[in-house]
Structure formats: C-alpha cells, structure tokens
Amino acid sequence: MPLSYRELVQGLQRLGLPAGKPVIAHASLKSFGEVRGGAETLLGALLGVFPHLMMPTHTYQTMLIPEEGPADNAIQYGSGRDQNAMAVFFTPDLPADPLMGILPEVLRKHPQAKRSTHPILSFAGVGVDETLTTQTLAEPLAPIRVLNEEEGWVLLLGVDHTVNTSIHYAEKLAGRRQFVRWALTPGGVVECPGFPGCSLGFEKAAPLLQAVTRETMIGTARVRALPLTEMTGLLVAALQEDPLAFLCDDPTCERCAATRQALARE
Ligand SMILES: [Zn+2]
C-alpha cells in the first residue's frame, strides 16, 4: 500500500515537535517507498505539520573555477575551463541542483514559497520570509543562524547527517576553516566567501547527537528530528575538543585536507 497524506502527517506528528517552531528539512522521497501523490503529497504533509519550513536549494551549476585566487583554498585554480563553459547564471528561478533531491525544487515552486538570493547557497521556504532575507554573500549561513535563534529544528527524512547543512553553521561558530568560491550571475562573476567545508564525515556526529535526537519510522523512511540550539551546542563543544572531528576519510578530499593542513600549521 502506498503511503497516504494522512499517514505522513501522523508520522511527522509522532515526533512531537513544539508547535510553531521553524524547521529546516532534508529529504529523500525514495526512502519512503511509494507515496500516493509523490513529492507534492510529502511537501503538503510537511507544511501541514510545520508551517514554517525551509530547505536548501543550492545551485552548484553556477560555480566557476578562476585562473587564480587565495592560497590554501582547496581548489585547483585553472582546472575548471570545461566546467566554466557549462556554468549557468544564477537567477531566482534556477532549479535547485538535482543533488538536493526532488523536494527542495517542489518547495521552491510552491505558490507561497520565497527564495533567498545567494548564487550558490540559496534556501527556499514557506512561512520563513524574514529568515530568508538575512542571507548575504558575506554570511551565507545566516538563515540557519536565525533558525538557531528561534529554537528551530532540523528534520532528516530518510537521509543522514551528511546532508545536514546546519552542521556547517556549528563548524563556522567553532572557527573551522571556510573557503572562497565563485559563481556566475547576470551581473558578472561574484566572489562567495564563507563557503563551508566537506560534509561527507558528518554522520560521525550521530552518536554524539543521539541524546537530543527524536526518531520515528514513516513507511520505510527513518525520520530524525534535532533541536538546532542543542545540536549546535554539542557540535561546537566537540569541535573545540577535537578540531579534526567530523572530517571525512577520503584521502583525495581537497577541503578536508585543507582543513587538516590549516590545523597542522596552527
Ligand atoms: Zn571531506
């Protein structure tokens, strides 16, 4: 039997999140098995339970690699000539990168949705209009800062912490190295500072975060919810204790290598 709207709503309500708090969600539609009505039904259920809903709608297809730039930036300058030729301009209606899954794109197209304007790291949402306006080129993670201040929640719907964007905010607070990237816009190439590191090691934070994690199964999807303020506090403390925490184990990962090298120099 495919999952119904009602079963999705009941599953989300089982998490028992405090009413009215904003939520940043990351989702794999496929993880739920068959859903009657697909992504629109899942989004409808999410908005029915969480009327202040935000998701990342990042657009990596705008990125360029310049011929030169700042040192120790985890990038091979001059290596992007083929990629640069394929880069597209950021516009507010540029679809979210398919890497984000289908749901952010369905949210972005919702009639009540707004989207922030960062050419790589935009967010979209319903009922979070003011939060979205806080994002700037200098502070790409500002919407997550605001959700922290408002005691919002992270929702992982059939996905793990490797897509939990809010962990990047904790990294920034803990003083972890940030990078510079570049994006194509109708106004020219824009420098984007404050670009976060790699997230492939973030599931290593799951045991630490277990104490504040609420969990349920909805169909075949494992759904986890975490309160942002508590999550961020635990992560910052862990990063201060071990500045190498939550880096990935891929020896070819440029950003994790740059982070390790920066720490070794200190
Ligand atoms: Zn990495």
Automatic annotation (TrEMBL):
EC number: 2.3.1.-
Keywords: Acyltransferase, Antibiotic resistance, Transferase
Record-linked Pfam families: Antibiotic_NAT
SUPFAM superfamilies in alphabetical order: TTHA0583/YokD-like
Gene Ontology MF annotations: aminoglycoside 3-N-acetyltransferase activity
InterPro entries assigned to the protein according to its UniProt record, in alphabetical order: Amioglycoside_AcTrfase, Antibiotic_NAT-like
UniProt GO BP: response to antibiotic
Catalytic reactions on record: a 2-deoxystreptamine antibiotic + acetyl-CoA = an N(3)-acetyl-2-deoxystreptamine antibiotic + CoA + H(+)
Top-level lineage group: Bacteria
Membrane spanning stretches: none
Protein family per UniProt: Belongs to the antibiotic N-acetyltransferase family.
UniProt name for this protein: Aminoglycoside N(3)-acetyltransferase
Phylogenetic placement of the source organism: Bacteria, Bacillati, Chloroflexota, Anaerolineae, Anaerolineales
